């Protein structure tokens, strides 16, 4: 089976198991993930927003546009990455996802990672970062690749987590813009085997 068809199967499984029925009932549709199943990097946000809910694709709103800009600044194409969220339905009025919603979706995220087997997992924002690095302090730890192990397909596997600020943070705080752009260079360096 190709990675693409494995992801398709996983998406079907998520829809059938319906781990967050309340969220599904208020959302327009599932926002499972998008991009290249052969990607060396997965970006993980928090949860879909309004535009993502309408289009069924992660990071297509204002934060997504800035993400595209940052990728372009280090010559990475959106077609070269895979992108998803911890929680895969839009929470009502964009409220923060609840701990139990993140918990319910966690095994699906790990299964996506197990299929794609990226070289680096870039988390976007504190909530996504803390899902992998519980003691993360984003202001201190952003841009620093961290080796951890996670259970993929029943085995402990080493992965590199690169915690990044959420692109939306730079839309509210212009000072973070350059910080994020600098941190995207770290993504590029990891992918070019320079770290
Ligand atoms: N913010 C997120 O965390 N995810 C999206 O898909 C869009 C905005």
Explain this structure.
The chain is α/β, with parallel strands linked by helices and 195 residues long. It has helices at residues 3-17, 21-26, 50-55, 62-73, 99-116, 126-132, 138-141, 167-172, 176-191; strands at residues 34-35, 41-45, 82-85, 120-124, 146-152, 155-164. It has a single domain, classed as Uracil-DNA Glycosylase, subunit E (3-Layer(aba) Sandwich). Helices cover 46% and strands 17% of the residues. The chain has a six-stranded mixed beta sheet with strand order 1-3-2-4-6-5. Helix 1 packs antiparallel against helix 5 (99-116). The longest helix has 18 residues, at 99-116. The N and C termini lie far apart (32 Å). The mean pLDDT is 96. Bound molecules: uracil (URA). Residues 45-49, 52, 58-59, 61, 63, 85, 168 line the site of uracil. Residues 45-49, 52, 58-59, 61, 63, 85, 168 line the site of uracil (URA).
Helix and strand arrangement:
Layout: H1 3-17, H2 21-26, E1 34-35, E2 41-45, H3 50-55, H4 62-73, E3 82-85, H5 99-116, E4 120-124, H6 126-132, H7 138-141, E5 146-152, E6 155-164, H8 167-172, H9 176-191
Parallel strand pairs: 2-3, 2-4, 4-6
Antiparallel strand pairs: 1-3, 5-6
The chain binds uracil.
């Amino acid at each position: 089976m190709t990675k693409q068809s494995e992801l398709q199967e996983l998406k079907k499984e998520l829809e059938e198991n319906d781990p967050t029925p309340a969220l599904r009932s208020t959302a327009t549709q599932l926002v499972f993930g998008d991009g290249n199943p052969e990607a060396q990097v997965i970006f993980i946000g928090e949860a879909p927003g309004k535009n993502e809910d309408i289009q069924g694709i992660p990071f297509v709103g204002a934060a997504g546009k800035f993400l595209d800009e940052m990728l372009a600044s280090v010559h990475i194409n959106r077609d070269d990455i895979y992108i998803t969220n911890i929680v895969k339905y839009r929470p009502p009025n964009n409220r923060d996802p609840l701990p139990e919603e993140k918990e319910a979706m966690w095994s699906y995220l790990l299964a996506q990672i197990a299929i794609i087997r990226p070289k680096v997992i870039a988390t976007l924002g504190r909530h996504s970062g803390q899902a992998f690095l519980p003691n993360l302090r984003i202001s201190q730890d952003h841009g620093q690749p961290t080796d951890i192990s996670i259970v993929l397909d029943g085995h402990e596997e080493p992965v590199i987590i690169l915690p990044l600020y959420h692109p939306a943070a730079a839309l509210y705080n212009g000072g973070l813009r350059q910080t994020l752009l600098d941190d995207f260079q770290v993504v590029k360096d990891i992918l070019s085997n320079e770290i």
